[in-house]
Amino acid sequence: MSAPQTHNAFHHVIASLIPPGSRVLDLGCGDGALLALLRDTRQCTGYGIELDDAKVEACVARGVNVIQRNLEEGLSIFDDNSFDVVLQLDTLQHLRNTEDMLRETARIGRTGLVSFPNFAHWPHRFSVLRGRMPVSRSLPYQWYDTPNIRVATFADFEILTGKNGLRILESFGWHEGHEVRLWPNLMASTAVFKFERA
């Protein structure tokens, strides 16, 4: 499956986890494709937050509401329970204030959906065993030029949510266009969690 088809399939899986008519905030929304899908197929409303100029322009071209903002500045512009769902798809690994952002997600949203590259995926483990940092579709950069500030695994995120008073509602893996429910920490290149305040 090609990369755009894989990305599109992932968006459809994420959309299926969001109740129709939800008010959604997408942190690091990219070109707004997911928000447009949610608007068009699930009657969702809301906003994206994006820093990159070209991606903000792409959101505007799609008719997606977007706020240009650096996520490192936090989410204090939003009141408690402003959204039904807050998305953080492939953003946590780029942030310095990961734990704060997770708490803020729980503060402003009733539920959160997070995805990130799973560092415990078996090819990554094998690469580290050989003495090399992994390079893969989910971690496509060399160690010296990666935008990722940190790496994490399923187990790491489970500990982080528990430490911050959050309850995991659902978790699964994603790999090459398919959901991974059996041994996702080993078999999935991407981790996906849906959570709420405990």
Automatic annotation (TrEMBL):
Matches recorded under InterPro entries: Methionine_synth_MetW, SAM-dependent_MTases_sf
Domain of life: Bacteria
Classification via Gene3D superfamilies: Vaccinia Virus protein VP39
Pfam families attached to this UniProt entry: MetW
Signal peptide region: none
NCBIfam families in the cross-refs: metW
Name the UniProt record assigns to this protein: Methionine biosynthesis protein MetW
Species this chain originates from: Aquabacterium commune
